């Protein structure tokens, strides 16, 4: 016999599929609050359809978005007005970052696709003195606290989808068409490796199965 919690989770999954919303875009405004009002250059790693890069472009003289998926980069290019100072390039996040340095580097829901410490080291090397690195990432649930936070997020996720879609069924947002593989690192492992690579980095668990990292280069 199917347990009540399992039936509830399956019902929530069906509801969420009918009322999807972009968990990563949920953090875009938060990312902007971590940044100066104006800066010269920004790099968005794993830029997808370009939503965050276009927001950054309202504050920057130049924004570069890179992604390894040529289809999503083509979509970002089509969605971006020529008047917006943002360009999008197919590039590898470890070996193909366009020459910087950058005053701002952002990376949303992409770093778990990369070797973590190596990626942080590469990002650090492309950040200008005084620059800011902001990461929104995914971690693997490990502790009881992780599982409790995930359980609490499930009904809130459904309620948010309902409100954002005004109670109507909706197609998946364009920004959600790319596949995201599950995270392999626990939050405690992420914190340990991040502090080794980026001394002074601030990390926090967040709702909707995310964590955030902010680091300022001296």
Describe the 3D structure.
A seven-stranded mixed sheet has the order 3-2-1-4-5-7-6. It is built from seven helices and seven strands. With 218 residues, the protein is of the alpha/beta class. Helix 1 (4-18) crosses helix 6 (144-164) and helix 5 (116-125) runs parallel beside helix 7. Mean pLDDT is 81; it is low at 15-21, 154-165 and 167-173.
Key terms:
7 helices; globular; alpha/beta; 2 domains; Rossmann fold; 218 residues
Order of helices and strands: HHEHEHEEHEHHEE
What is the tally of beta strands? 7
Count of separate DSSP helical elements: 7
For the largest beta-sheet, the strand count, sense and barrel status come to: 7 strands, mixed
Our count of domains comes out at 2
Name of the CATH superfamily of the largest domain: Vaccinia Virus protein VP39
Strand proportion, as a percent range, falls in: 15-25%
* The level-1 CATH class of the largest domain: Alpha Beta
Identify the strand order in the major beta sheet: 3-2-1-4-5-7-6
Low-confidence stretches: 15-21, 154-165, 167-173
Helical/strand content category:
alpha/beta
Inertia-based shape: globular
Mean pLDDT metric: 81
Radius of gyration: 18 Å
How far apart, in Å, are the first and last alpha carbons?
58 Å
Which CATH architecture of the largest domain?
A: 3-Layer(aba) Sandwich
């Amino acid at each position: 016999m199917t347990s009540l919690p399992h039936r509830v989770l399956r019902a929530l999954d069906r509801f969420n599929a009918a009322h999807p919303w972009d968990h990563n875009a949920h953090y875009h405004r938060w990312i902007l609050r971590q940044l100066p009002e104006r800066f010269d250059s920004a790099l968005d790693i794993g830029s997808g359809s370009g939503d965050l890069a276009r927001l950054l472009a309202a504050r920057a003289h130049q924004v570069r978005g890179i992604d390894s998926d040529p289809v999503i980069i083509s979509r970002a290019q089509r969605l971006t007005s020529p008047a917006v100072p943002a360009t999008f390039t197919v590039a590898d996040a470890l070996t193909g970052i366009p020459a910087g340095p950058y005053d701002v580097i952002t990376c949303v829901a992409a770093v778990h696709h990369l070797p973590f410490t190596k990626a942080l080291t590469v990002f650090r090397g492309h950040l200008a003195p005084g620059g800011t690195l902001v990461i929104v990432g995914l971690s693997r649930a490990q502790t009881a606290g992780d599982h409790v936070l995930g359980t609490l997020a499930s009904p809130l996720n459904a309620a948010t989808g309902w409100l954002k879609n005004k109670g109507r069924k909706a197609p998946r947002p364009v920004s959600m068409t790319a596949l995201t593989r599950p995270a392999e690192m626990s939050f405690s492992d992420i914190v340990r490796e991040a502090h080794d690579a980026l001394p002074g980095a601030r990390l926090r668990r967040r709702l909707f199965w995310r964590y955030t990292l902010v680091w300022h280069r001296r």
